[in-house]
Specification:
By secondary structure, the chain is of the alpha/beta class. The protein contains eleven helices and 15 strands. Helix 3 runs parallel beside helix 5 (about 140-150) and helix 4 (about 110-125) crosses helix 5 (about 140-150).
């Protein structure tokens, strides 16, 4: 488990991380998202011990990272591997030799290296490329080599720093599926740094949004979507739904995990009420579809509709517009 409390990091007078509190459980895929300069990569480098933090605590499995000696830190880093946006390959070496490189540096036997390299090549889907040079591979294949190399020392934690940013959308999805597969098969904790919310939606269970070195939003990805905090909307650049000032609507949350499928037609028939859909959104989060409808109905029907949604186990809230800005609330 990774436990971060009151973490601060400064470069001279510039404060890069300010009072970060964060807990990442074993085996989670956790996202760190934010704009360039938000402090994401610096936090990642603190986690793997490449940067010393100025104040606060950062513990992995109960061990305070800043208290490790140089020798202890070197051993510690065997358990924390990293993949990057640009996959640094040894261009004159084969794929096999690139993957084997960390194990050879640590003095593993030839037999152990050969077994591990072939296992990892099979895992990441590049067994047929072992004799090729990096220049003969596509970007996605090179990233698979980098992932295999990062796994050679059997790390407990894999850090991904914008690892898909240089890839096309199809290849990005394939690499994200690979990371999920690795997480499920090996139980490795994966921390994903990205500025792409699509990456968070595809692969992460939980996410933290950083802004100017501060934690502004944190929680399970699906719950943040359902709650729709303003900070996340601002980061995504989403326009607020705007409608008649002072009017109240009903926002109905849609999920694969409840009875919300077809809820509008059922509710309309049961209550004999007509609704107008004034706004909606639907998106995929990992293996689940989540979305919402904003409905316009007569004020005298609001309580009846709320009672029906409660009985049906549907998450909902009132949605008001004040001074042209939408605000969600539970009370009417």
């Amino acid at each position: 488990m990774i436990e971060i409390k009151g973490l601060q990091k400064s470069f001279g007078e510039l404060k890069v991380l300010n009072n970060i509190d964060l807990t990442i459980g074993d085996g989670e895929i956790y996202g760190l998202v934010g704009k360039s300069g938000a402090g994401k990569s610096t936090l990642l480098r603190c986690i793997n011990g490449l940067e010393q933090y100025s104040a606060g605590s950062l513990k992995i499995d109960g061990v305070e990272i800043k208290d490790l000696s140089r020798k202890e830190l070197r051993t510690f880093r065997k358990g924390v591997s990293m993949i990057f946006q640009h996959f640094p390959m040894l261009t004159r070496k084969t794929v096999y030799e690139n993957i084997a490189f960390p194990m050879r540096c640590w003095g593993y036997s030839r037999a152990a290296v050969d077994t591990r390299v072939k296992e990892l090549a099979e895992l990441v889907g590049i067994s047929e490329k072992l004799d090729q040079k990096p220049g003969q591979l596509s970007g996605g294949q090179q990233q698979r080599v980098a992932i295999a190399r990062a796994l050679t020392m059997e790390p407990k934690i894999l850090l991904s720093d914008e690892a898909t940013s240089a890839l096309d959308p199809v290849t990005t999805r394939a690499i994200l599926r690979l990371l999920r597969d690795i997480n499920e098969k090996l139980g490795i904790t994966i921390i994903v740094v990205t500025h792409q919310m699509s990456v968070i939606k595809d692969v992460c269970e939980k996410v933290t949004l950083l802004e100017s070195g501060e934690l502004v939003v944190s929680g399970p990805v699906d719950e943040l979507f359902m709650d729709q905090p303003e900070e996340l909307k601002t980061f995504l650049g989403e326009e607020q739904f705007r409608a008649e000032e002072g009017k109240t609507y009903i926002q109905v949350m849609l999920s694969d995990q409840d009875g919300s499928k077809g809820i509008l037609s059922r509710m309309s028939r049961t209550l004999d009420i007509d609704f107008t859909i004034v706004n909606s959104e639907m998106d995929r989060y990992r293996d689940e579809y989540l979305g919402y409808l904003i409905l316009d109905c007569a004020k005298e029907h609001m309580e009846k509709v709320g009672d029906y949604l409660d009985r049906s186990g549907i998450i909902w809230r009132y949605y008001r517009t004040e001074s042209g800005e939408g605000t969600s609330c539970r009370d009417f």
